[in-house]
């Protein structure tokens, strides 16, 4: 019985999330209401509020889900070994990320605009800190004999990524995901990674 209830909850949440994505792609985040989401998901507003406090709560939970999925993608391949990174592996993973972004371009436009972009960037920063804190810490990067703080490096990298995603979705660029991945890796690989003392393996 509990399993059936759990499945029903998961199904209802999925319907709400799918309705949210559809409406964001059609109208934009600010224009939609809880009533719109409930109507699209074919539920009443009371059912919506049984799962989410409000529209921002739904948004934050979706972002958390997106970050967790990104984390699982990062876990599939060992990108860094010692001070070396594998470019082809990074390109493959970033391509997968850009495919998801392209499929939900209006949603990611919302994620990378205004106050939303700071929340998105902060979540990405926390993920990178969790995954690669030890790598950056071991490098002991210095500039004029002053050690560069790890949190500065991570904030710099996440800002670049969020800015790149925003440019891509806001300009409706015809660059395909594979091209964007290669471009990002080339820019970072030829500059920022080598400056940080990371060897790039092609």
Describe this structure in words.
The protein has 202 residues and is mainly alpha-helical. The protein is built from nine helices and five strands. A three-stranded mixed beta sheet has the order 1-2-5. The protein has a two-stranded antiparallel ribbon with strand order 3-4. A hairpin with a 2-residue loop joins β3 (142-143) and β4. α1 packs across α2, α6 (105-111) crosses α8 and α7 (114-139) packs across α8 (150-170). The longest helix is centred in the first third of the chain and has 26 residues, at 2-27. The mean pLDDT is 79.
SSE topology:
Elements: H1 2-27, H2 34-41, H3 45-51, H4 55-76, E1 80-81, E2 84-86, H5 87-103, H6 105-111, H7 114-139, E3 142-143, E4 146-147, H8 150-170, H9 177-195, E5 199-201
Parallel strand pairs: 2-5
Antiparallel strand pairs: 1-2, 3-4
Helix pairs in contact: 1-2, 1-6, 4-7, 5-9, 6-8, 7-8
Topology pattern, helix = H, strand = E: HHHHEEHHHEEHHE
Shape: globular
Low-confidence stretches: none
Alpha carbon gap, first and last residue: 53 Å
Strand elements, count: 5
Number of helices: 9
Quick one: biggest sheet? 3 strands, mixed
Using brief descriptors, characterize the structure shown:
mainly alpha; single chain; 9 helices; 3-stranded mixed sheet; 5 strands; 202 residues; 6% strand
Sum this structure up briefly.
The protein contains 9 helices and 5 strands. The chain has 202 residues and is mainly α.
């Amino acid at each position: 019985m509990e399993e059936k209830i759990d499945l029903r909850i998961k199904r209802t949440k999925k319907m709400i999330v799918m309705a949210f994505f559809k409406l964001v792609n059609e109208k934009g985040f600010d224009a939609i209401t809880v009533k719109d989401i409930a109507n699209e998901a074919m539920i009443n507003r009371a059912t919506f509020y049984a799962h989410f406090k409000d529209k921002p709560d739904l948004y934050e939970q979706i972002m958390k889900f997106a970050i967790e999925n990104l984390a699982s993608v990062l876990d599939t391949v060992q990108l860094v070994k010692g001070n070396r990174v594998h470019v082809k592996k990074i390109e493959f993973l970033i391509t997968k990320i850009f495919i998801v972004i392209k499929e939900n371009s209006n949603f990611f436009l919302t994620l990378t605009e205004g106050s939303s972009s700071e929340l998105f960037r902060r979540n990405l920063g926390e993920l990178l800190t969790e995954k690669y804190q030890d790598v950056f810490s071991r490098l002991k990067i210095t500039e004029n004999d002053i050690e560069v703080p790890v949190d500065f490096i991570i904030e710099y990298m996440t800002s670049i990524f969020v800015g790149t995603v925003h440019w891509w979705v806001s300009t409706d660029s015809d660059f395909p995901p594979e091209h964007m991945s290669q471009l990002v890796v080339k820019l970072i690989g030829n500059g920022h990674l080598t400056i940080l003392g990371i060897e790039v393996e092609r």
